[in-house]
Amino acid sequence: MATTLAKADETVDFAARLQHVSKSFTGPGGQQLVLDDISIDVAPGEFVTLLGASGCGKSTLLNLVAGLDRPTTGSITTDGRPALMFQEHALFPWLTAGKNIELALKLRGVPKPLRRDKAEELLELVRLKGAHGKRVHELSGGMRQRVAMARALAQESNLLLMDEPFAALDAITRDVLHDELTRIWAETGLSVLFVTHNVREAVRLAQRVILLSSRPGRIAREWEVDIPQPRRIEDAPVAELSLEITEVLRGEIRRHGQH
User: Fold this and answer.
1) How many domains does the chain have?
2) Engineering a disulfide at 27: which of 32, 54, 176, 241 sits with its beta carbon 3.0 to 4.6 angstroms away?
3) Are residues 237 and 127 both part of a single domain?
4) Alpha helices by DSSP H, the chain
């Protein structure tokens, strides 16, 4: 019944370890089981997507890994404190792009004289060089998510948690950010746990896809994605595996009587 960080001097072979995690909430009809007996290891440097129908508990699971909530039963251990990126960019509109990143650096304890240069480096990493002084309202949706990604990277976590970060973007912008995320993941060696309900997005990005059943969320099936990167949404192997996963997902939805 705990979410814990691995000790600084402890050698671990995982970025996140979930052991028999369940989560219940109190509702009008009593206790409602949302997640049931979830066990997952995310290896160092691994990119894993969590996939499932709306309401299956994907975001709840991510919040548990982030330490924003505690499991009802089971345990979660992470290698350091995870960084979290949401569907909404959650940038402070009264700060510039660079100052949003500098705030994350400040909270991490980076000395003030070093923050500007580090923020500039992170903006360049997400291909927003020169955007330090831009206000949030001056940025497009895709640019805001790039800044949000840079702010998450400013936390220097070993594990990046992403909760449908591209869902609100148009298809072209989303595709471009898929490329950027894949590049940044390869360059940094981060572990990524990425929540989505988009099957092709899951296959496009991940090394491993985990499908959760409808509520209560249980691990219904896993797929290793052996398609070489770089991948495209329209690539035949991506489409073929996406179709296979979609059929299993449809079966889960039908089995649980959801529409």
Assistant:
1) 2
2) 32
3) no
4) 58-66, 97-108, 112-125, 141-153, 171-188, 199-205, 236-255
